[in-house]
Each structure stands twice: as structure tokens, then as C-alpha cells.
Amino acid sequence: MKLKRLNDSQSFRATFLIGCFLILICIVWLATGCGDDNPTNPVIIVPSPKPVSVSLDSIIVVQIPFENDEGICWDLFSGADLFFNFTNSAGVILLRSEIIYDLSRSDLPVIFWTDPPYIINNWNTTYFFKLYDWDALSNNDYIGKVYFCINQVIENQGYSERLIIRNQSQTIRLRLALRWVWS
Ligand SMILES: [Ca+2]
Question: What is the pTM of this model?
Fold first, then answer.
């Protein structure tokens, strides 16, 4: 075999290329973790699962006041005729309950089913239950309201399937059944 001697320029070029090649090998070696004697496991960030929707399945009225602020019963000769409107923050009525006539304290709690279950679209807004005593011959009497916001529910108690909401004076208490759909 015949060897050909390189001139200075060719020698410099060959050295430069070999140097570049070695640096490249080092970079690949380090990047793949081969240079670490005690490599740590790669961290895999798994996003927390979030439900895709939530629906309101039922509303249980646990407590209402049976007298108005002046201490007078809603109806003079019978119990309250309870119903409620479920509204968004703009006051638009989304659901209206049936009326339960002649309700007395011993009848509580009473349950109202949503049929079909009401899907809560806006998790960032406040929804209201406005409770009334129905009257045939005069305007309905306003009993009071309670409200909730889904994002606040999640923040306070996670994806809970049972939510209790009260008014400020603690005279109204509702228990909501929420159903979270995960996929
Ligand atoms: Ca009434």
C-alpha cells in the first residue's frame, strides 16, 4: 500500500474535521445522558384530568323560612306553596320548578329532579335559585335566593357530587346533586 503524505493545508483541514466530529460525538453523548453516571429518570408531566361537563341532576330543599321578615307566614291558612326559578347571572330563567303546595316544616326536605339533567355550560358565572311562595290571587311572595359558581365549587371542594348552598342569613339551605362527566 502506498501512503500519500498530506500537505499542511490538507493536514489542517483533516485535523479540523476530526475535531468537529469529536465535539459532535461529545454533544450527542451528553445529550442522551450517557455521560451521567447516575442518570435521573425523565420527568413526565401528566396533565390533571378534568371533567368535560357537569350537570345538575337534582335539588333538595333542606330548609326555608316559613315566615317573612315581619314574622308573618307566607299563607295565612295553609303552608307555603314553594317553587323556585333557576336563573343565570343576567336573571334569565333557565329552569322553573313545579309548585309544592301547602308545604310545612315537617315536609322538608323535598327533592326536585331536573329532567333531563341540566348541563351547566358556563363554569365561571354565578347561577341563582330564587325561591317563592306561589299565590293565586296576588303576586307571589319572594322567599329568598341562594347561588353558586362551578369554578368556585372546584376551588373550594374539588369535583364534589354534593353541594350545599345557603343564603347569608342561613335561613335557606339547598343540596345539589352534581354529576361530572370525564370523557
Ligand atoms: Ca301561597
Answer: 0.74
